[in-house]
């Protein structure tokens, strides 16, 4: 059986000020063409179909078009909801849509009910684990500790129990939306940290033939059988070095056999350039970036006049301009944003306590801050679900 693994479409998302709907529509066409040309037997979409819980109408229309085109292929598609999706909205009409071969898995309680796809060497069971927000699903899975590892482990226990009742030789594919240990994040994923911990070990998924992961935007191999497809398009300049692609996965009678990357069409390359403005405007080695989307960081000690207009004369698709003047580390003019760069919410809060009080928080106070930050994030999730 041949499976096409993709995820993190983020329909409706822009790249800085650039509307990406046209590029997203081109990707859908590329996916459909790949299915036809490469004899694909099933498509899996591992979450974050939309970019937000209430997507714009144009994104909904594009998704509707994608559903029709996937259904017309005559092969099954399995999708799960991600942390950007509203599970309830994405799952509306799932029963009816399932009759057309598009299987939406958005209910955590149904994670052990597989989509069964037969082939010449036996059945393949596709189990969809939608994004599991620990605080919202811990009661469903009967876990006392609301953490990602605990709820995913409980969900996988249900999957393995169901798989054990299947005929011998049944192969298994998991769709999951999570941050698995060993994965490399970018700037464009929404933080899912709980209790200071976001990552779960890949061993949670032991006992299955392939794990199609979503959430991280770079295509990555955690283990041979546990992979991220990554997003098909870039959504931040931190993805400048990504190769945007999907995984074409082959299963044989014994399970996982091989995987091949299939490149996705990207409207423009990304480039991150850095230096003093006059130098950037003259350097011959930067000519290769003149048609790219550009993030420029200027290091001039004094901010130059009209820098964006001057940059766009050479790099017309400059989308982001930042300033990092070359000054001493103790210079009082170093920006607040620069001082916070690379620090997470927990670290910023702890630094604030130290600044105000003269001493940082102790372990008990760190736990209070961590719980408060988690509660805010969970409240945001609940509001999105309720919309």
Please, could you describe this protein's structure?
- The protein has 387 residues and is of the alpha/beta class.
- The protein has 2 domains: 2-263, Metallo-dependent phosphatases (Purple Acid Phosphatase, chain A, domain 2), CATH 3.60.21; 270-326, no CATH class.
- It is 32% helix and 24% strand.
- The chain has 11 helices and 19 strands.
- It has helices at residues 21-37, 57-72, 87-91, 94-98, 134-141, 148-164, 277-280, 307-314, 336-340, 345-357, 363-386, and strands spanning 2-6, 14-15, 18-19, 42-46, 77-80, 102-105, 115-119, 122-129, 171-177, 179-180, 199-200, 210-214, 220-223, 226-228, 245-252, 255-263, 270-275, 293-298, 318-323.
- The strands form 5 sheets. Strands 6-5-4-1-15-16 form a 6-stranded mixed beta sheet. A 6-stranded mixed beta sheet has the order 7-8-9-12-14-13, with helices on one face.
- A hairpin with a 2-residue loop joins β15 and β16 (255-263).
- α5 (134-141) runs parallel beside α6 and α10 crosses α11 (363-386).
- The longest helix has 24 residues, at 363-386.
- The radius of gyration is 23 Å and the shape is globular.
- It starts with a strand and ends with a helix.
Which structural class should the secondary elements be placed in? Answer: alpha/beta
- Order of strands in the sheet with most strands: 6-5-4-1-15-16
Fourth-level CATH superfamily of the largest domain? Metallo-dependent phosphatases
Describe the main β-sheet briefly: 6 strands, mixed
CATH class of the largest domain: Alpha Beta
Helix content: 25-40%
CATH topology name of the largest domain, in short, is Purple Acid Phosphatase, chain A, domain 2
Please give the CATH architecture of the largest domain: 4-Layer Sandwich
| Radius of gyration over C-alpha positions, nearest whole angstrom | 23 Å
> What string, H for helix and E for strand, traces the elements in order?
EEEHEHEHHEEEHHEEEEEEEEEHEHEHHH
GO molecular function, one term: 3'-5' exonuclease activity
Family: Belongs to the SbcD family.
InterPro entries: Calcineurin-like_PHP, DNA_Repair-Maintenance_Comp, Metallo-depent_PP-like, Mre11_N, SbcD, SbcD_C
Domain Calcineurin-like phosphoesterase: 1-217
């Amino acid at each position: 059986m041949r499976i096409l693994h993709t995820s993190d479409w983020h329909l409706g998302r822009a790249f800085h000020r650039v509307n990406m709907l046209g590029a997203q529509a081109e990707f859908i066409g590329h996916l459909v063409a790949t299915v036809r040309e490469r004899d694909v037997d099933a498509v899996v979409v591992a979450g974050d179909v939309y970019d937000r819980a209430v997507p714009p109408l144009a994104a909904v229309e594009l998704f509707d078009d994608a559903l029709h085109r996937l259904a017309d292929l005559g092969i099954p598609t399995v999708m799960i909801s991600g942390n950007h999706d509203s599970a309830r909205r994405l799952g509306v009409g799932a029963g009816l849509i399932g009759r057309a071969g598009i299987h939406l898995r958005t209910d955590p309680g149904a994670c052990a009910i597989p989509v069964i796809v037969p082939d010449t060497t036996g059945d393949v069971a596709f189990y969809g684990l939608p994004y599991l927000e620990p605080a919202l699903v811990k009661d469903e899975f009967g876990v006392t500790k609301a953490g990602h590892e605990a709820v995913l482990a409980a969900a996988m226990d249900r999957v393995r129990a169901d798989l054990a009742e299947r005929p011998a030789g049944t192969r298994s594919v998991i769709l999951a939306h999570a941050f698995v240990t060993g994965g490399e994040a970018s700037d464009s994923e929404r933080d899912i940290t709980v209790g200071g911990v976001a990552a779960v070990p890949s061993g949670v998924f032991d006992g299955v033939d392939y794990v199609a992961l979503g959430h991280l935007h770079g295509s990555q191999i955690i283990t041979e059988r546990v992979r991220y497809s990554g997003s098909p398009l870039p959504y931040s300049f931190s993805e400048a070095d990504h190769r945007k692609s999907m995984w074409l996965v082959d299963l044989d009678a014994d399970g996982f056999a091989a995987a091949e990357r299939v490149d996705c069409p990207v409207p423009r390359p990304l480039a991150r350039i850095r230096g003093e403005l006059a130098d950037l405007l003259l350097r011959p080695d930067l000519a290769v970036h003149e048609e790219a989307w550009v993030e420029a960081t200027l290091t001039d000690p004094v901010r130059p006049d009209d820098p964006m207009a001057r940059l766009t004369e050479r790099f017309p698709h400059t989308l982001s301009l930042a300033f990092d003047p070359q000054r001493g580390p103790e210079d009082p003019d170093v920006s607040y944003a620069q001082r916070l760069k690379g620090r997470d919410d927990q670290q910023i809060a702890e630094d604030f306590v130290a600044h105000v009080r003269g001493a940082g928080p102790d372990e008990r106070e760190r736990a209070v801050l961590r719980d408060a930050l988690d509660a805010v994030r969970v409240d945001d999730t609940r509001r999105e679900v309720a919309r």
